[in-house]
Amino acid sequence: MLDLGDSGALFGLIDGLGHGLAAAAAAERAVAVLAENRAEPLDVLMVLSDHALADTRGAAMTLAMLYFGTSELSWLGVGNVSTCLIEATPTGPAARDTALLLGGIVGYRLPATLPSQTTKMRPGDLLLMVSDGILADHGDAIDLSKPAHVIADDILSGYAKEIDDAFVLAARHRGTKQ
Fold first, then answer.
1. Strands (E), 99-172
2. CB-CB contact of 152 with 130 (8 Å)
3. Has this prediction a pTM greater than 0.85?
4. Pairwise CA distance, residues 52 & 178, whole Å
């Protein structure tokens, strides 16, 4: 998460392709680009990351920008970093909205068009981003009564694949200050 001051926050999950030091180097370079350019629109951040990762093995990444004043959440994903908003329902936690992911690799084969999507993030909603190293049935571990970091830890400890890197980002909207 990168702080945008009072205006919002930028969330991102970057999964360098493959394993080991080369995958970590690609992800770290993308993080540096995002930190240096955090106020740019999501499509610009993707293009800047693509240029910066051109001599690496590349990465899958999803970015989400939350604007505090309007509670609007914009997101854009390239590759296989799944992202959704989880809400409490009478029957338990459920995905209220899911980011559409574009095919491609940041640093190697970026899609020609990068349309971001916008949704509203309501108080209590949980933004959940998971890499492909997390099993698909990870939703079973979501207990919205727990803090976001505990939910992320529960998913990571219970649903990480043994043969892949696994990453989880969870952030909860706690409402606006009155």
1. 101-102, 117-120, 126-130, 168-172
2. no
3. yes
4. 41
Q: What is the pLDDT of residues 1-25, one digit of tens each?
A: 666 777 889 999 999 998 889 999 9
How many beta carbons lie within 10 A of that of residue 142, not counting itself? 19
Please name which of 51, 97, 43 lies closest in space to residue 72, comparing C-alpha atoms.
97
Q: Which single residue is written with the structure tokens 């219970």?
A: 158
Which strand (E) or helix (H) includes residue 156? helix 148-159
Q: Mean pLDDT over residues 94-113, rounded?
A: 94
Distance CA 49, CA 33 (A): 6
CB neighbours of residue 94 within 10 Å? 14
89-99 confidence digits (pLDDT tens):
999 899 999 99
d(C-alpha 48, C-alpha 61), whole Å: 13
Cα separation of 170 and 56, whole Å?
27
Burial readout 157-174 (b: 16 or more C-beta within 10 A, e: otherwise): eebbeeeebbbbbbbbbe
Architecture of domain 2-172: 4-Layer Sandwich (3.60)
Closest-CA residue to 13 (of 98, 76, 95, 96):
76
User: What secondary structure letter does DSSP report for 147?
Assistant: -
User: Which two tokens mark 74?
Assistant: 């914009």
